[in-house]
Specification:
107 residues, alpha+beta, 7-stranded antiparallel β-sheet, 1 helix, 7 strands, 20% helix, 35% strand, globular
């Protein structure tokens, strides 16, 4: 395990995620740290899901519908927020965390 506070919360807040099976938009609490993006249905006890940053292939820009995507080898997550500015701060934070993580991984 590396030092340097990689599990420190970098960003947290409410976003909407489209479900994999039930494709309706669901409000979730998201928490980004230096290794993963977790999302929760209710309180911050047990995550409903975890996106490992090392597995993220791409974080898209915001599209015309106000949605961005996080692509992994097994799934593409559709995410939207309250405002485009809020979404952009999430995109920047995820990309930055992913970039810093990539610098610490063995090549």
């Amino acid at each position: 395990m590396s030092s340097g506070g990689s599990l420190q919360t970098l960003k947290e807040g409410t976003l909407y995620k489209r479900g994999k099976i039930n494709t309706e938009w669901r409000q979730r609490q998201f928490v980004l740290n230096g290794k993963q993006l977790s999302y929760f249905k209710g309180g911050r006890h047990v995550p409903s899901g975890i996106i490992e940053l090392r597995e993220v292939r791409r974080v898209s820009d915001i599209n015309a519908d106000g949605i961005f995507q996080i692509e992994t080898p097994v799934r593409t997550f559709d995410i939207r927020g309250e405002t485009r500015d809020d979404l952009q701060t999430w995109i920047d934070a995820i990309r930055d965390a992913k970039s810093k993580l990539n610098q610490t991984l063995p090549k």
